[in-house]
Amino acid sequence: MTRFSAFSLFAKALGGHKDWPEQWPDAAPKPAYDAIIVGGGGHGLGAAYYLAKKYGITNVAVLEKGWIGGGNTGRNTTIIRSNYLYDESAHLYDHAVKLWDGLSQELNYNTMYSKRGVMMLAHNVHDIQSFKRHIHANRLNGVDNEWLTPEEARAYCPPLNISPDARYPVLGAALQRRGGTARHDTVAWGYARAAAALGVDIIQNCGVTGIRRGVDGAVEGVETTRGYISCKRVGVSAAGNSSVIMQMAGLDFPLESYPLQALVSEPVKPTFPCVVMSNTVHAYMSQSDKGELVIGAGTDQYVSYSQRGALHIVEHTLAAICEIFPIYRRMRMLRTWGGIVDVTPDRSPILGKTPVKGLYVNCGWGTGGFKATPGAGDLLAYTMAKDEPHWINAPYNLDRFRNGRLIDEAAAAAVAH
Amino acid sequence: MILIHCPYCDEKRAEIEFAYAGEAHISRPVDPSTYGDEEWERYLFIRANPKGRHHERWRHIHGCGRFFNAVRDTVTDKFETTYKAGEPRK
Amino acid sequence: MSGFRLPTGGRVDRSRPVRFSFDGVSYTGFAGDTLASALLANGVMLFGRSFKYHRPRGLLAAGSEEPNALVSVDRGPGRFTPNLRATNVEVHEGLKAVSQNRWPSLKTDFGAINDRLGMFFPAGFYNKTFMWPRSFWDKLYEPAIRKIAGLGDAPTEDDPDQYAATHAHCDLLIIGAGPAGIDAALEAAGTNRRVTVIDEQDEAGGSALADPSLWQWLERSMKALNDAPNVTILTRTTAFGYYHDNFIGAVQRLTDHLPDDGDAPREKLWRIRAGEVILAQGAIERPLVFAGNDTPGVMLSSAAKTFANRYGVAVGKSVALMATHDSGWHDVFALAKAGVGIAAIIDVRDTVDADLLKQAADLRITVKLSHSVIGVSGRYGVKTIEIAHNDGTGIRSIACDALLMAGGWTPSVHLWSHSKGTLKWCDDIGAYVPDQPNENVRCVGACAGACNFGQGAVIDVLPTPMDQSRIKAFVDFQNDVTAKDIKLAVREGFRSIEHIKRYTTNGMATDQGKTSNLNGLQIASTALAKPITDIGLTTFRPPYTPQTFGALAGHAKGALFQATRTTNIDSWAEEHSAVFELVAQWRRARYFPKAGEDMHAAVNRECVAVRSSVGIFDASTLGKIEVVGPDAAEFLNRMYTNPWKALEPGRCRYGLLLKEDGFITDDGVSARLAPDRFHLTTTTGGAARVLNMMEDYLQTEWPDLNVWLTSTTEQYAVIALQGPNARKLLEPLVEGIDLSAEAFPHMAIREGAICGIPTRLFRVSFTGELGFEINVPTAYGRALWERIMAEGDRYDITPYGTETMHVLRAEKGFIIVGQDTDGTVTPYDASLDWAVGKKKLDFVGKRSLARPDIVAAGRKQLVGLLTDDPNVVLEEGAQIVADPNQPIPMKMIGHVTSSYWSATLGRSIAMALVAGGQDKMGETLHIPMPGKTHTAKISGMVFYDPQGARLNV
User: Fold this and answer.
1) Domains in chain B, please, with CATH?
2) Beta-bridge partner residues of C241
3) In the Cβ-directed half-sphere of A16, how many Cα atoms lie within 13 Å?
4) I need a labelling partner for C656 at 20 to 30 A (CA). Which of C228, C493, C723, C848 fits?
5) Is A170 helix (H, G, I), strand (E, B) or coil?
6) What residues of chain C lie within 8 A of the CB of B61, using their CB?
7) Count of B–C CB contacts within 8 Å?
């Protein structure tokens, strides 16, 4: 692996950039691997990297049906935060945030993790109660999250409209300063390059069509569009397509896949210094390094794999943005797109073992998977390497849907009275 | 915004008149207490979530108010048919 | 100077000069000019700076595909718009445009240092550096990158303009009013179909506007269409997105082209549902890729023709053409005939049609076949071009002040692709064309691939004898993506066109690749040595061109963003200085401060008034559902945890509703009016959800039950009268109801009249005091309220709001669903065991209550909490620990759900969810707050009048 640095960039520039090597080789499937990851998004590539880096399992393949990072990794609004309410969630997401810090250096690939702060707006008394609950829980969990008055919120984000006459006035905000954004593509590419350097095969255009199980029920290998691959340890990290893959192993999952849209504005000079989220008004926004305002919309209401959403969702999202930030009414929407988010009944992920021996799963991240990328990769790798979950992902098992030990952040936050 | 045919009104109307109501043909047991934890989990949470033909429920909430069933392709989002609640699975 | 107004020609109105400014300099154009044509007529060639290298740029195109000439327009306070294409900005008197992405000026831009150092900033350079030292990223590198990036400035003030929106339906929607679209419209005009034609330009005609020979036809055709009663024509309207089931989004620009817009809306969103769609979007000419192709003055050949024929402006005095396609030749012939000097025609092809050669000869134009442009000199405008034979020999210079590029045509398949129609590769034109439709849609004219502009060669990069890794031959002009960037991406292992796009940012600029995608594909195809069809095509996504946030938000602004629901009594509260809070969609009075009172003083006063005399409260927002039918009791029995069948008519019951997962979702007091009729109440926020849930079970699980559900939330105004004097106050006003304790006990309902108004009178209490809730038809709400206020004067009646209601109910240990429960709380967790019918075989959620974790010990349970220091009011949401001295992360065992100062008790009270709380009565727990840890003891939840003595009077 050619080390990236200002020096290497300078040296290669003098040579007309003609001898940059491939960032990762275009591998063809081998007949067998020690471990296979199904799904070449950030999570799956991260899992492959950590398997090789931390657990010494280097005979690993990542199977991606399209191009790596082409699913939700490359389609999301890249918000990173960990100010979740429940201990289980705070541990999970903070594990990821800690890995984000320093990831560029670890991967030798600039993932552009920008600690711009994530500010969540409170618009009614119920929001205030809920945010205070989060802030106090976060403080005792060692996760930064602080309360801001409306004036402090506007000082942190000057475009914010804090007029008390607004339809949904801002009554305050919760700010996580370590929260922020990263550059989505580079996370996938950085993991792919670093994993490949450790011996991992990154295999694109290789869709999984079946999971072969032996007489004992354990996984023996996977059928793919590029032939059968033998492997006794398969981790599925396929986001919106998780139900489809798990059904190949005979497992029905508590998942539904919904279209989620996002959009960006035309690029402008720096105008928006942080990430702002409003659950009550249904809007969230940040500004990318390139200058685009990056805006997340809501999910469409029905199950779909079409990666295509409806206009009224975008209309509502932009109306919400214009309410909170009226100075942006004349900004223009440049591009919209859709992803497929896999949602569990408690809107928390499933990350761990499955009833099938040798089959592991990382799914159900819904609309919030990007922020967890390094953590999910690391924990899936741990679980596959040890054949048991790490204490952080142990609560995110499948059993909780049977025994009722759900981890329902949304229920805890979003009930109006 | 998809168009949906309400089998009660016998009209195709815009999606914003309707509320999606999840997978269809998941019947509540007559006596849930006879269900083991696993069966109950299946009833509550396990969903087909297929890539392709999907049986689902909609409610014409801003119309006649009725719940009905539909078969829709989840890849193209196109409806194959809609039919009244209580009619057999299509 | 190049560029000038031709003595004749064009569709501009030479009798109407228009003054405008660009970067503070005044210019004159004509009505009908765009900013681009008017500036060009004034000899301005430099329009902007590119995104990355800040290179000086002129016009590439004449239409909405323009990537370079982006300007900001300032229409006064709050009316600043960045990133507008000069080719789409119509000039009007007083128009003020400024250039962008430059400092200090367009001509002298310090950012252009990036261009000098360009070799160090290839595609994806930022992935490879700015990592050391680590702390520099946040503080130094990233802010610097951001400052250099971005195009125009964002607006800084609220936009005073209004935006409109509408729905439209038609049998046939034609998108694009060029010759093909107009033909389709003419054909449909004679039918009885409702036809809508939309076009993004200020005038219908499309490519015909640049072809004077078609103007007569155009005028005739437009007259016919305008006269046809079934045809609607929308100009300045962009169909930006094609959604499911022939749903098209379009935005019409209404006032930006006017000097003074009065109060008219600026733009209008059209949501169009069409029976059939005809796409006639035309085709976009492709630039050619060679060193210097971004110099101001190098532009598309078709653009030069448009400037000359439509606007009467020559793009230069001596114009050269670089062609790989016949269409450029025709354009140049047209220019020559319009009086523009032609320096030369250079064509990469070895042979072209003899007729072209003959026409060139007739016009005495120098022709160089088998040649390519290999360089352009001049930084702010073309001075000379350098050409060479394709074999690299014969390098020579040609003086000229503009260079046209004719690289062939790309059909505009954007909307077709939004609709999920498939595409097929067409070798003849080197482009993708529509194949199989996915909706009731067809393409006509050039966007269908029927480009009748002659022959051409498809070529990725023009031949050059120079080292291709050293030259800047641009593919995506705005984003500064060069051919070598695409080759670098391929070299570095990016093989999918999506990867190449993302690595190089090719096609991701504000023009979304209209002029760059196909060239990028060709270059990638060559670099990968794979057929173009093997490397995929990036997805076309809405919008076709950028669209204003305000237009998409439409009318949904301020009060219209979402309706605020108010009660009939709300206006009284407003007149009496109430402070409001938002609860779900409702606005509710929170408290009624008297002069000088803050919330606490007001609430304390209101609480004492209720407990000592009588208070009045607007409870109209509570959800109400009328449940009627012979099986009504059976239905409620199945829905709620409580038993309902034995409830006698005239009596009320507290009902607790679970979701099927066993967690509390709603509650409320409901009354049985008759054996087959119930009046249900729900929480304010839960009304719609509960009705939907009940309808779901009724219609789909138990269709055999004979029950009707009707929402009556807005049918009744509800006035709660609470306090020891409530009965005395009410008695003289009520007719037909015996209010005595014996005849009308707590938790009963009677029907009668109050002040002559029919009423459903509940004797219920959410305060612990003797209380009534008076339901009257909504329209009488305020009148009755005022009458009771007047009658209550002798009891010093006190209006109170939701905050006092919260305190009073907390003193009695009544829960609020959504505050004391949070969607993870069972009836047992909430100490509501008494509300669960033990003998009931089934109700919604019952089975879930038997799940292992729900019956396990240690669940969080709702308890009372009394601080050791009675003056400390805990913060709602504060976390509770057993051991305050443990290190972080602490083991938290619960949190405070409700907490108030109780004026009645003279101390603070709180409710909390605590793990195993019901077994911890009397135990001391700790609440660590920043700077101080509070202590509190677990108690029962009823802090006041535990025997209920005040209630049963």
Assistant:
1) 1-26+49-90 (3.30.2270.10)
2) C249
3) 11
4) C723
5) coil
6) 692
7) 54
Helix (H, G, I), strand (E, B) or coil at C647: coil
Burial class (CB in 10 A: 0-12, 13-18, 19+), A36: buried
Determine the residue among B16, B38, B45 to mutate to test chain A binding: the one whose Cβ has the most chain A Cβ atoms within 10 Å: B45
Q: What angle do CA A380, A383, A387 make, to 5 degrees?
A: 150
Name the 3-class secondary structure at A259: strand
Kindly state the tokens that stand for C2: 């190049």
> Is the Cβ–Cβ distance between C625 and C682 less than 8 Å?
yes
Q: Considering only residues 215 to 274 of chain A, which have any Cβ-Cβ distance to chain B shorter than 8 Å?
A: 241, 243-244, 252-257
Q: DSSP class of residue C173?
A: E
Question: In angstroms, how far is the first alpha carbon of chain A from the final one?
Answer: 57
Q: What is residue A416's predicted lDDT score, i.e. its pLDDT?
A: 41
Reported as a single tens digit per residue, the pLDDT across C40-96 is 999 999 999 999 999 999 999 999 999 999 999 999 999 999 999 999 999 999 999
How would you classify the pairing of strands C267-279 and C163-175? parallel
Token representation of residue A153: 């919120």
Q: Which residue's entry shows tokens 């021996």?
A: A357
For the record, the structure tokens of A411 come out as 């229920």
The helix or strand, by DSSP H or E, that contains position C248, with its residue range, turns out to be strand C247-253
CA distances to A172, B19, B70, C156 from C696, rounded to whole Å, are 38, 11, 16, 48
**Quick check: C915 pLDDT over 60?**
yes
Could you tell me how many helices (H) and strands (E) chain A has, helices first? 12, 19
Give the residue among A160, A74, A78 at the shortest CA–CA distance from A115.
A78
Tell me which of B30, B39, B78 to substitute to probe the interface with C (most C C-beta atoms closer than 10 Å): B78
Q: Which amino acid is at A387?
A: D
State whether C548 and A333 contact (CB < 8 Å). yes
Averaged pLDDT for residues A27-36: 98
Mean pLDDT of C587-607: 98
pLDDT (average), residues A77-93: 95
| pLDDT tens for each residue of A95-131 | 999 999 999 999 999 999 999 999 999 999 999 999 9
Other Cβ atoms within 10 Å of A391 Cβ, number: 10
Choose, out of B59, B79, B82, the residue to mutate when testing the contact with C (most C CBs < 10 Å): B59
> Dihedral of the CA atoms C351, C354, C356, C358 (nearest 10)?
130
State whether B49 and A243 contact (CB < 8 Å). Answer: yes
Cis preceding-peptide flag for A29 (omega within 30 of 0):
no
pLDDT at C195 over 90: yes
ipTM exceeds 0.95: yes
Residues of B in Cβ contact (< 8 Å) with A314 = none
Greatest pairwise CA separation for chain A in angstroms: 68
Q: What does DSSP say about strands A359-363 and A234-236: parallel, antiparallel, or unpaired?
A: parallel
Domains of chain C: 4-130 (3.10.20.440), 163-280 (3.50.50.60), 601-808 (3.30.1360.120), 857-953 (2.40.30.110)
List the structure tokens of C940. 């029962």
**Per-residue pLDDT tens for C717-742?**
999 999 999 999 999 999 999 999 99
Chain A touched by C851 (CB under 8 Å): yes
Cβ-in-10-Å burial (0-12, 13-18, 19+) of C220 comes to: exposed
Judge: B74–A254 Cβ closer than 8 Å, yes or no: no
pLDDT at position C3 over 80? no
Token output for C862: 């709702």
Helices assigned H by DSSP within C376-469? 414-418
C37 — phi, psi (to 5°)?
-70, -35
The set of residues, in sequence order, having a beta carbon less than 8 Å from that of C416 and lying 6+ positions away, is C242, C279, C423, C434, C437, C441, C443, C447
Residues 6+ positions from C598 with CB-CB distance below 8 Å: none
DSSP string, A35-57: EEEE--SHHHHHHHHHHHHHH--
